[in-house]
Amino acid sequence: MSSTSQKHKEFVAEPMGEKPVMALAGIGEVLGKKLEEHGFDKAYVVLGQFLVLKKDEELFRDWLKDTCGANAKQQRDCYGCLKEWCDAFL
């Protein structure tokens, strides 16, 4: 398993609350703005899409690529972050 970033560790350490979309691992300013343009302004809105896609890695990663142009590492980081958060809090 790949190592996780500090951003990932901070995100999964506590409830999501009203964290901005850019708090998600793999989502920086550029991708965050693209997601916001599509109505995904908060981390919990992206979590909703993750759950709608039944936590399926391939579907979520494809959605992320199609929605904001995330590359493979960004997709993997964001998926891993949301999956670990769900394992801890759902």
Automatic annotation (TrEMBL):
User: Per UniProt, which keywords does this protein have?
Assistant: Nucleus
Major place of localization?
Answer: nucleus
Taxonomy-wise, where does this protein's organism fall, top ranks first?
Answer: Eukaryota, Metazoa, Chordata, Craniata, Vertebrata
Q: Which PANTHER family match?
A: BARRIER TO AUTOINTEGRATION FACTOR 2, BARRIER-TO-AUTOINTEGRATION FACTOR
Coiled-coil intervals? none
A Pfam family cross-referenced in the UniProt record is SAM_BAF
The name this protein carries in UniProt is Barrier-to-autointegration factor
> Has the keyword Repressor been applied to this entry?
no
Nucleus: is it a keyword of this entry? Answer: yes
Q: Which organism is it from?
A: Goodea atripinnis
Subcellular location(s) of the protein: Nucleus
